[in-house]
Design goal:
Elements (H helix, E strand, L loop, with lengths): L1 E3 L3 H7 L3 H5 L2 H10 L2 E4 L4 E4 L2 H8 L5 E2 L6 H13 L5 H11 L12 H13 L1 H5 L2 H13 L7 E2 H6 L1 H11 L6 H12 L8 H24 L8 H6 L11 H32 L1 H9 L4 H11 L6 E5 L3 E3 L2 E3 L4 E4 L1 H4 L35 H18 L3 E2 L22 E4 L1
Parallel strand pairs: 1-2, 3-9
Antiparallel strand pairs: 2-3, 4-6, 5-11, 6-9, 7-8, 10-11
Helix pairs in contact: 5-6, 6-13, 9-11, 9-19, 11-15, 12-13, 12-15, 13-15, 15-17, 15-19
Length: 425
Amino acid sequence: MSIVENHTQTESLFSLKQNSLRSPYPLYDYWRQLGPIVFLKEYDIYVVTRQDLIKSINRNPTVFSNQNPLGPSSKDAAAAYSTALKNRDSDFIEKAMTVLARGNVLFTADPPEHTRHRRLLNGALKRSAIEKFRTEIDSISKKLITNLPRNKTFNIIESLTVPVPIRCLARLLDVPADHDSDFYRWASAINSTIGNFMPPEKVKKVIDDQMDFWRFFEHELQAREGATTEDLLTAIANAESAEDAPLQITEKVGFCAQLIGAGADTTTKLLGFSILMLAQNPDLQKALRNDRTMVGPFLEEMLRLEPPVQGMFRVAMQDTNIEDIFIPKGANLWLLYAAANRDENHFICPHQIDINRKSPSEHLSFGSGPHVCIGANLAREVAQSAIHELLEQTENITCDESCEELVMESSYIMHGFCELPILLK
């Protein structure tokens, strides 16, 4: 096993330097060339960059637990929360820590609880359930894009890529549209501790926003118990099966936290990179305008090349070996999906976009195995709707030289732009 220490590029990524956040892929290639598992000594992290090994680990949750999928930053956040919450009552503390842990449901849970959660909640986000809302999703995209500025540069993150997934998710949950700004505030608070090091002075504001989220969804879920309306929040409130215990309120709110924090925000990031790719590649943009059936494969390539979540962590529950490499009990393994998506052993010309790949969805950006993303169908539907409509309503999408200096969000796990100046004609 290769050990990396005192390495400038590695330090640059974990120090959240902008050049490393924008394009960490040369570093990922370097790690993969060192061997199947690389140990980052300063951070006590085992990095897995090969697609076959990541899939194998994901298939074995008994040995490789999902109890801490966000890695070392979770421990730092928990310590900061403990300090900020020391004078709060026990009920408040329990709820705040539940939101911090994303509810210990689905992607933060292991079997058998994870299996129970998926059985209870899969139906609410299966493809046929999402397709019922396709007309409304398209209507949201159309209205937002109709109102975008033409012939002048504007921040498309603020005007389109943030509100589209939030409004679509709000509609699926049957929450009034006037909560759009709340959804964005809640998503920002829920994701604030992922892959970065939040200063103590920001913790109180984050906790207050997260608790506002908790109060809203606890009230909405309880109000919908026993209801029969066909919306996602009612489905969560009444999820049941013959073989499983009903979800507790903490699990229901936790699932909502994952939907808002992961679902909306990751689609925002996917759309940002996709629009930039179109703006910087006129021939590609022309190809999609001439053949809209290629929008789906294009988005799969963008998911492969610029995954909104760069990778998730697993914890070794026992001493074990991976390809004769010893992994001690308690070790943190970073399953680096973004590196596996550019694995030259799996993809031809892995750093290039190719909308004609034979199997465009073979990337790992939605995970794999039992923890494959439950919201993948929703993300794909919303992203395809927005890109289709953007191509339909415009003649050209461009950006100026400022796009070479784009500011990235401060996280080595979440991967997206703070702003994206775009001009539409």
